[in-house]
Amino acid sequence: MASGGEDDELDLEAAAEARPAPAEAGPRQAAAPEAGPSSVSDGSGGAGGTAAAVSATSMSRRPVHADVSHGGRGGSGEGVSAVPAGAAAVAAALTVPAPPSSASGVYVDWEAEDEFSSPPTPTAVAAAASPSAPVTDSDASPGRAHGAGSPPPEAEAEVEDEAAAQRRIALLVELLAASGAELEARLEAAAPHVDEQMLALLQARYATALRLRQEPAAAERIASLYRALRYLLQRRTSTPSERLLDEVLDLLADTEAQPDPARRRGDAAARLRSAFTGGMLEVDVFTAAAALAESREAAAAALAGGEQVPIEAFKAEAMALLGHAKRVQAETEEAVAAVEEQVAELREADPAALAGREWAGRMQQLELARRALAERSGSIAALEEVLLLTRAIELQMLTGRLGE
């Protein structure tokens, strides 16, 4: 980190005082920052091209199906002017999670001589503007207003909001200071506490890092933490079917953990069976005995075998996602073909135009679209394989041969 924990804390406090509107986030699309290809540990995290996994750490990856729907790791295409219709469609077909690009005024307008000085809070401003009157006995007496000396509800709400903001800031400072296994453990512990306000604070911190031109490694670390926390929020707020699909696609793509394709397919099928049946087929007496020796909670978790997902709901969501991915793929292919046709015509009519700045940007977008096509093609194939496994398990369930 280029900036120390104290600087991070002060800057995050400044963002908390501004209280931005919550950033959008969802299981398939989220408010995303705009640059920075990597994550806390490594961008790919061991997942292969099928899933196009963008990892925050080895234990926290962005949902793979987001790449299937929206084109994998392409570029957004924003900021390129005068793009022809074909190239515009290519750019529109590409979305990639990236760090925030610009700072909102609420985060930067307070800039003072000290780069990391916090802006005055609304309470402090009001106090400075209002001269205080001498305290009299009648003023100090309990129950003068709101009864029994209790503060008004608005004041209580403000105190609670400030306390929550301070907790978010403290948690972010801890995460920014951690690395490796410690970071993974802290992320796992922080998962239940991640919310939109925390992501907004981190976006503000990233915007400040860009404004102050801090070291690229420091800005990328903030962006990586943003992606990790956003994934945790998406994971918590997504449907059971989406979480299961994410896990199964990861299993099929993880060539590092399991090089054998047949074994990966078997692992994916086992995970699906466990989810569709509640996990009872996956538990043996030794697992249950060990869990019971540890605690009742551990035994219940072991016997449950994970989250149960209705097979019909899973099929419906997977098929809808596959259909959307195929439509986006077809539209991107048409856009790429149109731009390639324009390029071929220019090579014959005006080759010098291709060397200009305008077409350099268009050619970059074209290359990004080609990569997105290749990645999405692998993801579509993985989705089709998941549906084949699902249908096979469904047939086994219908014929009573599920345990064979």
Question: What report would you give on this structure?
Answer:
The longest helix is centred in the last third of the chain and has 43 residues. By secondary structure, this protein is mainly α. 63% of the residues lie in helices and 1% in strands. The protein has 17 helices and two strands. Strands 1-2 form a two-stranded antiparallel sheet. The chain is flat and about 80 Å long. It starts with a helix and ends in a 5-residue tail after the last helix. The protein has two domains: 168 residues, no CATH class; 150 residues, no CATH class. A hairpin with a 2-residue loop joins strand 1 and strand 2. Helix 2 crosses helix 17, helix 3 packs antiparallel against helix 15 and helix 9 packs antiparallel against helix 10.
Keywords for this entry:
single chain, 404 residues, 2 domains, disordered N terminus
Give the helix/strand layout.
Elements: H1 5-18, E1 55-57, E2 60-61, H2 64-70, H3 85-92, H4 105-108, H5 122-129, H6 137-140, H7 153-177, H8 180-190, H9 196-211, H10 216-237, H11 240-253, H12 261-277, H13 285-294, H14 296-304, H15 311-349, H16 351-354, H17 357-399
Antiparallel strand pairs: 1-2
Biased composition (Low complexity): 15-42, 123-142
Biased composition (Acidic residues): 1-14
Region (Disordered): 1-81, 114-162
Tell me the number of strands: 2
Task: Kindly name the structural category.
Answer: mainly alpha
Mean pLDDT: 69
Shape: flat
Give start-end ranges of low-pLDDT stretches: 1-7, 18-146
Order of secondary-structure elements: HEEHHHHHHHHHHHHHHHH
Sheet with the most strands? 2 strands, antiparallel
Q: How much helical structure, as a percent, in the residues? A: 55-70%
- The count of domains is 2
Biased composition (Acidic residues): 1-14
Biased composition (Low complexity): 15-42, 123-142
Region (Disordered): 1-81, 114-162
